[in-house]
Specification:
Blueprint: H1 2-22, H2 29-40, E1 42-43, E2 64-66, E3 72-78, E4 95-97, E5 110-114, E6 118-121, E7 134-138, E8 141-144, E9 158-162, E10 172-173, E11 176-177, E12 190-192, E13 198-200, E14 214-216, E15 221-224, H3 230-233, E16 239-241, E17 246-250, E18 263-265, E19 270-274, E20 287-289, E21 294-298, E22 311-313, E23 318-321, E24 334-336, E25 343-344, E26 362-364, E27 369-373, E28 383-385, E29 390-393, E30 404-406, E31 411-412, E32 429-431, E33 438-440, H4 444-451, E34 457-459, E35 464-467, E36 481-483, E37 488-489, E38 505-507, E39 514-516, H5 519-524, E40 530-532, E41 537-541, E42 554-556, E43 561-565, E44 579-581, E45 586-588, E46 600-601
The structure holds 2-acetamido-2-deoxy-beta-D-glucopyranose (10 copies).
One 2-acetamido-2-deoxy-beta-D-glucopyranose binds at residues 438, 464, 466, 488.
């Protein structure tokens, strides 16, 4: 018994092997004709049809697959992405017509035509393709609109018609309204109709697509309200993208029932009203964007349940409050609330958000009407953009651990509890422009410059710091910008051993700095590209060492009380200098302007800007 079974097995194996080796599925003559007709309407500069020769389309024709009986069941043409630039032309791609011959391949299950410069309107004969499961046209040069006959390809599961032209090309495809016939495609699992100039409303009958797990309609001109039924019928949806359209009305509360959702993009529309509290039930949601709408009211406290949330972008709306519950969102990586109408204090709990993310949370609450003192507990953030608000009180020292801090245009001052110093100083960019700091530099500023080995930008301009400027000069090896202009610093320029990194910018203008310029000032800053010490009270001669500035593009010494002759060494700046301003001083003699190619402003009434 066992022996006979064994023999049968061997026989089966032999037959199976024989079948695959001989691959006897000679191409169906009708399909061959259709493929040849299709090939005939293509220019083929990239010779991508090179393999389409002979009569057996099932044997080695690139992109063509057959059934065992020689019928073409899959055609996949994927050209190289068309070249961009002034003369965009697909030099190595296909160029051809969206020929009706395609729909003569009646056994097709898969038809994907991507980036091949398919010109003209799509044929409206998709009803021939009764077995079609996958249909994709992307990055083509289509004209016309969506063919309603696609709705007759009843087996369709994956439908993608998107980005019909790469950026920089004229788009001629006017998708038009989503044809009602598409609603008959009840097997659809994914629908992607992006960047296709779709117009009109989403027909309510899309709620027939009950097997859909991904529905993408981004970047079209769809308008009006979105059908409420989506919320209680398309239960499988994990991805819904309606961004960059013209939708209006409230966000349907019912969408809160799509509990499988992982991605929900509603940004760049004209949605109004509140954000539904029901969204707190979307516990798998990873990305929610609703920026650039007309949404108002609070961010619902129920958002504290969205434990999977990674990205929450509600910027550019009229939202008015942040719930402390957002601090519960441990996976949050980006929280963007820029340009809303959020008032009151920033809840300290926000500092806990993103605690499960290694890099920390990127938080943007800039351009709101937030006020009160900053929480002392924001040190775990990756970035904190809170400029253009009404925060007052001290700068919490723990922020020196945050990579990018912008608190410009607030009312922060040098008083009150600054909290504990951070364990590590990781700040790279620290912007405190236009606040209300007064008095001598508090020690935390030089400490940041000294201890944050990564700091590239520090801007404390437009405050009213007084006293000695020297503590700003620390060994900060990555510094690109030190802006302390528009303060009331009153001291000599420092003779510190601090060396500005090559290419950096130093702006100490509009202060009360006095005394002579030490020779070491230029030597130590020899690599600087931009030095502005104008509008101070500096006196004495300009030291010879000015010629040491090897990278200088802009040097502004104007509006001081410098005296004596301008040293000859200044000619050495000729190679790099773009703008040199010596005006409004008490120099005697003349400047070797010819050597500097007239890139100099010297006389008080002679302002040349280059
Ligand atoms: C087409 O056939 C090749 C080789 O047999 C196979 O690797 C590929 O998966 C097939 N493609 C489709 C879409 O059926
Ligand atoms: C794209 O289509 C237009 C006509 O709709 C045609 O004039 C143009 O030449 C086509 N571009 C390419 C690169 O085929
Ligand atoms: C949205 O609608 C407005 C007003 O009807 C119109 O001016 C605008 O062009 C539309 N935008 C898009 C992307 O369709
Ligand atoms: C958006 O809606 C507001 C009213 O809510 C309306 O004033 C505005 O014109 C709309 N904008 C567009 C582009 O439709
Ligand atoms: C969340 O779902 C539960 C049960 O599914 C429901 O009772 C509750 O009303 C929903 N919450 C909101 C805010 O809609
Ligand atoms: C969420 O945050 C609030 C306020 O910060 C807190 O009272 C609540 O216990 C937190 N809930 C969970 C589930 O962590
Ligand atoms: C800067 O740091 C060095 C050592 O890292 C230390 O010796 C020095 O005192 C510090 N200066 C200031 C102003 O903190
Ligand atoms: C800056 O502070 C100095 C000294 O405290 C004060 O005299 C001056 O008026 C202040 N300037 C501004 C613009 O507040
Ligand atoms: C320094 O800050 C002042 C005032 O904020 C600004 O006008 C100036 O352009 C800044 N300087 C540089 C070099 O960025
Ligand atoms: C100044 O530099 C320019 C190039 O930046 C050069 O052409 C010119 O000859 C130089 N002039 C003198 C006087 O060295």
């Amino acid at each position: 018994m066992a022996g006979r079974k064994g023999q049968q097995l061997v026989l089966l194996l032999v037959l199976a092997l024989w079948g695959t080796v001989t691959a006897s599925h000679q191409c169906d003559s009708g399909d061959l004709q259709a493929l040849n007709a299709f090939k005939a309407v293509f220019l083929d500069p990239g010779r991508l049809f090179e393999t389409w020769t002979g009569t057996d389309c099932c044997d080695g024709w690139a992109g063509v697959n057959c059934t065992n009986s020689g019928r073409v069941n899959s055609l996949i043409l994927e050209g190289p992405f068309p070249t961009r630039g002034p003369n965009p032309y697909p030099k190595s791609g296909y160029i051809g017509l969206a020929a009706a011959a395609l729909t003569d391949l009646t056994e097709l299950e898969t038809l994907r035509v991507i980036s091949v410069f398919f010109n003209g309107p799509l044929p409206d004969t998709f009803g021939n393709l009764k077995k079609l499961e996958t249909l994709e046209f992307g990055f083509n040069n289509l004209s016309g609109s969506l063919p309603p006959s696609i709705g007759q390809a009843k087996k369709l599961k994956y439908l993608t018609i998107n980005v019909n032209m790469p950026q920089g090309f004229d788009q001629k495809f006017d998708g038009g309204p989503i044809p009602e016939s598409f609603c008959d495609l009840t097997d659809l699992e994914t629908v992607s109709l992006t960047s296709s100039r779709l117009t009109g409303q989403i027909p309510a009958c899309v709620c027939n697509w009950q097997k859909a797990w991904s529905l993408e309609l981004s970047v079209n001109a769809l308008e009006s309200e979105i059908p409420n039924c989506i919320g209680y019928t398309l239960k499988q949806l994990t991805r819904l993208t309606l961004d960059y359209n013209n939708f209006t009305g409230p966000i349907p509360v019912m969408l809160g029932r799509l509990t499988e959702l992982e991605t929900l993009k509603l940004d760049h529309n004209n949605f109004s009203g509140d954000i539904p509290a029901s969204f707190g039930n979307l516990t798998f949601l990873e990305e929610f964007t609703a920026s650039d709408n007309e949404l108002g009211g609070p961010i619902p406290a129920s958002f504290g349940n969205l434990q999977a949330l990674v990205t929450l972008d509600l910027s550019y709306n009229y939202l008015d409050s942040i719930p402390a519950e957002l601090g519960n969102l441990t996976s949050l990586y980006e929280l963007n609330l820029r340009r809303n109408k959020i008032q009151g204090r920033l809840p300290a709990e926000i500092g806990n958000a993103g605690s499960g993310v290694e890099q920390g949370l990127q938080l943007d609450v800039s351009h709101n009407i937030l006020t009160g003192k900053l929480p002392l507990t924001l040190g775990a953030l990756a970035s904190f953009l809170a400029h253009d608000n009404f925060f007052y009180g001290p700068f919490p020292q723990s922020l020196a651990a945050v990579g990018y801090v912008d608190l410009s245009n607030n009312y922060l001052g040098s008083w009150g509890d600054i909290g504990p110093a951070p364990e590590t100083y990781d700040v790279r960019i620290l912007l405190l422009r236009n606040n209300r700091f007064v008095g001598p530099l508090p020690s935390w500023i030089p400490e940041i410059l000294n201890k944050s080995r990564l700091i590239t930008d520090i801007d404390i301009s437009h405050n009213n710091f007084t006293g000695d400027v020297a503590p700003l000069f620390q060994d900060a090896p990555e510094l690109r910008l030190l802006n302390a202009s528009y303060n009331s610093f009153q001291s000599h320029l420092p003779e510190s051993p601090f060396v500005t990194p090559y290419g950096s910018t130093l702006d100490l203008s509009h202060n009360l700095l006095d005394g002579p310029i030490p020779a070491s000032f230029f030597t130590n800053n020899a690599g600087a590209q931009f030095i502005d010490i104008s509008y101070n009270e500096l006196s004495g001669p300009l030291p010879d060492s000015v010629g040491d500035l090897e990278a200088i593009a802009l040097l502004d010494l104007s509006h001081n009380h410098l005296t004596g002759e301008v040293p000859k060494s200044i000619e050495q700046l000729n190679d790099t200098i773009q703008y040199l301003d010596l005006s409004f001083n008490n120099f005697i003699g003349s400047v070797p302007a010819t050597a500097l190619e007239h890139k100099v402003s010297f006389d008080d009434d002679d302002h040349e800007y280059f």
